[in-house]
Amino acid sequence: MKIKKVLVSSIQEGMQIISKELGEDAVILSTRNIGSESSENDSKIEIIAAIDESFSNEQKVVNNDIKNLRSNNSNGVKLPEDLSKESLIYSEGLKNQITEIKQLLSDLSYRVKFKINNNQNDEIRAIFNGLLDAEFSEVFAYKIIDELSDLVIDDSIREDKETYLNYIKAKAKDLILKNIKIFPSITKSDNCTIISFFGTTGGGKTTSLIKLAILFKIIFNADSVILSTDVNKVGAIEQLQTYSSIAAIPHYAIFSPEDLAIAIEDNKSKDFILIDTTGSSQQDKELISELKRLLDIVGDHNRFLVQSCNVGKATFRQIIEEYSVLNPSGIILTKLDEAAALGNIIEIVNSEKIPLAYFTNGARVPDDIEPASLHYLKQFILL
């Protein structure tokens, strides 16, 4: 292990020195401000970094061994398969570790910049704490604060604390949502629009489908049909039958892939075909695979992952990952009214790049559903 301590005026200067002397694989161990009694301008930053020389040398050994073997193999004899494979696997493992270290360094840089910046005011710190309270991760919060600190704000806004705080809150919300994608509004067209709804049990699939079916009838005077593959859940069947009867929207139970194909063909003259599916745990890969085979019969159509907001970050991420095999066109976020905070949900949607299609915020049919918009989502970010 080789350790290097540098005393510099800025983080950038320190990173350049460390990178030059220890290499890009160096890891930052600590940083701290060292103030000067004579002048604030003379304050320095102490950075301690290290590099595991054995780690770096092992990578060189692997590369040199492969190079030597190839250069000495002039007689055309094939190298042993296991040696070649082992070297490649080992090399790939080193690459993965380097990638992880670089990601940690990237995350650390936001923490360092925030902690050593003596110019952070009370309002900026209040935003940072608000982000954490809203269940955004520390790393995400540091990134938002970093971008917020770089904004050029007119002195007239800074003069009044309340005006300034409200201004930077609004800017923070803009930064949080700047990478969120919104699914295009669904309207009645000359062709039949097919929409399937899938997700975990209790996520709000059936209720969301009913709300949209009735809204399409009210707004577009649409001729729609509801197809339900969720024939094993008595509550879902009764709910669909009740609302379908009230709204005069045809409803058919689907018992097999063949039934679905026939129903699609028979109803292709409709404005909308809405397909309800069986809810399942995100961990039930077999059921999700069955659902994929079923929806693939339909062909190209709008596929909506429906998920409630009152789940934890790890669970929501797992749901996104496991249902990705169904190629969701967008997400319907339900039960916004039941979620204490949405930071964890917004952060994952931000990183996964799946468009938001609709929000539901209550049980009233069809009132409590909204086309997704950044303006609407902002009101649920409490800073």
Describe the structure.
With 383 residues, the chain is an alpha/beta fold. It has 3 domains: 2-71 and 79-116, no CATH class; 122-177; 193-378, P-loop containing nucleotide triphosphate hydrolases (Rossmann fold, 3-Layer(aba) Sandwich), CATH 3.40.50.300. Helices cover 50% and strands 16% of the residues. The chain has 14 helices and 11 strands. It has helices at residues 11-22, 53-72, 81-116, 122-133, 138-149, 155-158, 161-177, 205-220, 234-247, 257-266, 285-298, 313-323, 343-352, 374-378; strands spanning 2-8, 27-34, 44-51, 193-198, 224-228, 251-253, 272-276, 302-308, 330-334, 356-360, 369-371. It has an 8-stranded mixed β-sheet with strand order 6-5-7-4-8-9-10-11, sandwiched between helices. Strands 1-3-2 form a 3-stranded antiparallel β-sheet. Helix 9 (234-247) links the parallel strand 5 (224-228) and strand 6. Helix 2 packs antiparallel against helix 3 (81-116) and helix 10 packs parallel to helix 11. It is elongated. The protein starts with a strand and ends in a 5-residue tail after the last helix. The model has no long low-confidence stretch (mean pLDDT 81).
